[in-house]
Amino acid sequence: MSAFQPPQRLFIHDVAVRDGFQIEPAFIPTERKITLIDALSRTGLAKIEVTSFTSPKAIPALADAEAVMGGIERVPGVQYVALVPNARGAERALGCRADELNIVMSASESHNRANLRMSPAESLRQFADIVRLVDGQAAVNASLSTAFGCPFDGEVPDALVLERVGRFVDMGICHVTLCDTTGMANPAQVRRLCAAVMAAWPELGLTAHFHDTRGMGLANALAALDVGVRRFDASLGGLGGCPFAPGASGNVCTEDLVHMFQSMGHDTGVQLDALLTQARQLPQLVGHPVPGQIMKAGAWDRRYPLPDFGGQRSEQVRLATSPGACGGGA
Q1: CB atoms near residue 142 (< 10 Å)
Q2: Could you report the per-residue pLDDT of 270-280, keeping only the tens digit for each?
Q3: Which of 43, 124, 191, 273 is deepest in the core (most CB within 10 A)?
Q4: Out of 179, 242, 253, 326, which one is annotated catalytic?
């Protein structure tokens, strides 16, 4: 377990079917999406981000949003989430009985304009419209992209992030996700910013969303855990990414994150073996390798048979297991 935290109950949210599939060049058939979501629902995940109710012209990969939401088997205890870009998307999501609507804007001006084609002020007005429209029919989560850095503007001041979160809270939004959109965060920054948000709004449901673009995704998740974050987004197999970080790897991998937390003694509620079964099917589904590591290497407690040393095996095994024997240069 962490040096700073005793074992905790943690909540894992998988975003692969939305965040991952939306940038895949080949359309994933609707029935395959439904089959995967149904399988993920039985692994113990707390939330699954199912789709996005955006224009099919904007994201053709998710043009089947209604069909997917209507076709899944809902498992009690799992929240089914839809990303919505505007009031029209919110109406569609509510019509499909989404448990939670995820609304998104960027902390930085440049990324918000590049990604959403509007200013942050316009996004905030749109958020307010959506909250009024939802009116308690579903939960609302505000995801703040580029909270840890912008690929255009560079560093994003903590004060600006706190100001944005404060605006969300003033609207009555109780759930916020801080997103490291292009993998710019570092553990010291994560610890500082997450601690500041939690100190300012202790009752806020805070989720951390990290990317592994620069290989610090799991380290950043651990830093967030150390200051009290208990909810984490991740993507099966590490699918996903951002178009503004060419060649970047995707989100923190769900099964790798679960494996890390569970090996530390934390309770994620997730059945790792069931999750790995689904992860190992992803390369065939998407048509290319995926970044996940545990699906390839196995869990830390995986054991292997001793190799066959031929005629010398018995002597080699005797020497290797005799008192005082050591290996690997120890």
Answers
A1: 25
A2: 999 999 999 99
A3: 43
A4: 242
